[in-house]
């Protein structure tokens, strides 16, 4: 099990390039199943989750040609329409192959993702939406067995805003007979990025980025070239780190217009943030003010930034109230932060964070992807040495994070 050793208590200074968005690349890679022609992608982040998705598609028969941040996928000869438990249990986003397989081949056998550390994470809305489009779906021995001679356009009202649910149904609707409307659709930038890639492949989609998406089905999709959007959560994570440690950092290859809620809150904490179309500069030179927040679907404050802001609030000059409304168990980082000297109480889905002057390094354990990012931020702030265990969680979603932080002056190294 690899660990990270961080000697914190110093500001961060310099410039770092943001990688492509994991949560846009995953559905976009899955969209390659919708066409027999190649999908040539650039700005693909080099992450374990991306490797898992490519491995899943390769065992279905997709030809994948990958070099650095370029990835070309060809689903001309699909031989197997199964997403096996062994792979799906390591990455829930594998569910994103269900819609494309059903739409193009009329059949799919996808393992139920099962729960994960942060919550039950059901996929009932994915299934209900596909059934509304005419699919017959049964659950057998932990697998979703789906069949449809030809999906039909339908009006689908989703009772909960679901990001991958919206993505699965939008992809399925591209090849359905007729028009599909997705109401109460997710508005996340990653949903928009997927829609733009599908449109480049010949799909007829409007309303992406709003809560009502309309898809007019077409016979087939052709190949395309597409650049994945910058990762707004990686961007927010670096911004929160600088707000906590102090310093002056410029982020390049970013998409500032996809994280207004995060930038607004960081300005409230006292940081100075300036932006151009694709760069952000943050200057923080005093103790952060506490930031109370409530997570909610885009464009509100993202749940994937909640843990990072809890870390920031640990050293703020007052008390902050943080409420998590999306997932039922997304405070596992709190007990680890308490080990570093943080003062936090949990009441149901709310964390009350009493800012302290300083944190002190200790051994801590990562429990999920964003919790591990939170612990990295806390380690960068804490005086002394922090050792973070189980950092395989971190490698799922952050591309070369210790190299990027080292370039900003952090003292961080990976221990085997
Ligand atoms: C996506 O997960 C992201 N993952 C998550 O990022 C992110 O936290 C989440 O959206 C919310 O923004 C990817 O895009 C690969 P949801 P997803 O379906 O789609 C309930 C990270 O750190 N729900 O939007 O699985 C669900 O229980 C990861 O990068 C149903 O009830 O999340 C949750 O309470 C973590 N039934 C809420 O909706 C369903 O069928 C939102 O979940 C689907 C979801």
Number of strands: 24
Strand order of the largest sheet: 22-23-1-24
What small molecules does the structure contain?
Answer: ligand EPZ
Query: How can the largest sheet be summarized?
Result: 4 strands, mixed
- Mean pLDDT reading: 97
The portion of residues assigned to helices is 25-40%
Using only C-alpha atoms, the radius of gyration works out to: 21 Å
Percentage of residues in strands: 25-35%
Unreliable residue stretches = none
End-to-end C-alpha gap: 7 Å
Oligomer: single chain
- Number of alpha- plus pi-helical segments: 14
- The general outline is elongated
Task: Fill in the keyword field for this structure.
416 residues, alpha/beta, four-stranded mixed β-sheet, 14 helices, 31% helix, 26% strand, elongated, binds ligand EPZ
